[in-house]
Amino acid sequence: QTADCWRCRSKFDFITRRHHCRRCGRVYCSNCCSRRLPLQRMCFVDPVRVCHDCSPATLRENDFYDRHLRLLLAGAHFLVSMVPDTSAALLHCCRLSSDHRVLELENTQSKECVEVPLASICTYRILRPNSPSITDSPRAVSVSDGGLSGVMLGYRPQAMNTSAAGGDGDQQQQESDSPQTLLHMGLSPVPEAAAQGALWIVALNKAFRMIHSPDTSPD
């Protein structure tokens, strides 16, 4: 067993008891692991012990779950089209699925729904009114300044596993070699819908930063 606190190196005894942080798993004394916070990212809804070092990141994560995740689940309206034919944009309601794994783009007229698994998204770009020509770009673009005009998603449709003999390696190779599909999601011309769409894009950007930087919470 651990003999002293990870942070202050106090020796454990009958008075100084051991406590472990539910986020990082390290062992601390009560002074260094005194905060109790919900740890929603790890499915702890009730407050649990979190060390001083993990508290700031946990608070930012809880803010994401309380505010931004609700926006993603509620959805927003966008003019969606396939690149390069951005002139044929149709109004879609875009939302995150209840299991937090899929982006659902539902046509508001035909009710047809395009499902884009988050795991299949390989490029992500936030668009602004003065954005250059539509091209691929790395995700996690800063959205702290300027207005937004939409977002571009690039994904590779996941291949169905039709043969047990193929194996996971062959399937992953097929997916990496498959052409990328680009979706252009422009803000609605309706001011209220555009404002909701901009907030939804900000929330999506924070979600991607959490997914691809597991040890760093969204700022």
Question: Can you describe this structure?
Answer:
It contains three helices and eleven strands, in the order E-E-E-E-H-E-E-E-E-E-E-H-E-H. The chain has 219 residues and is α+β, with helices and mostly antiparallel strands. The protein has two domains: 1-53, Herpes Virus-1 (2-Layer Sandwich), CATH 3.30.40; 76-212, PH-domain like (Roll). Helix 1 packs across helix 3 (191-212). Residues 1-54 form the FYVE-type domain.
Order of strands across the main sheet: 8-7-6-5-11-10-9
Provide the CATH architecture of the largest domain. Roll
Count, helices? 3
Q: What is the overall shape?
A: elongated
Query: How many strands?
Result: 11
Class derived from helix and strand content: alpha+beta
What is the CATH H-level superfamily of the largest domain? Answer: Zinc finger FYVE domain-containing protein 21, C-terminal
What are the secondary-structure elements, in order, as H or E? EEEEHEEEEEEHEH
Briefly note the CATH topology name of the largest domain. PH-domain like
CATH domain class of the largest domain: Mainly Beta
Overall mean pLDDT score?
Answer: 82
Report the uncertain regions.
Answer: 133-146, 160-167
Beta content comes to 25-35%
Bin the helical content.
10-25%
> What does the radius of gyration come to?
22 Å
**Mind describing the biggest β-sheet?**
7 strands, antiparallel
Distance between the termini: 36 Å
What's the structural domain tally?
2
Domain FYVE-type: 1-54
InterPro entries: FYVE-type_Zinc_Finger, ZFYVE21_C, ZFYVE21_C_sf, Znf_FYVE, Znf_FYVE-rel, Znf_FYVE_PHD, Znf_RING/FYVE/PHD
Organism: Amblyomma aureolatum
GO molecular function, one term: zinc ion binding
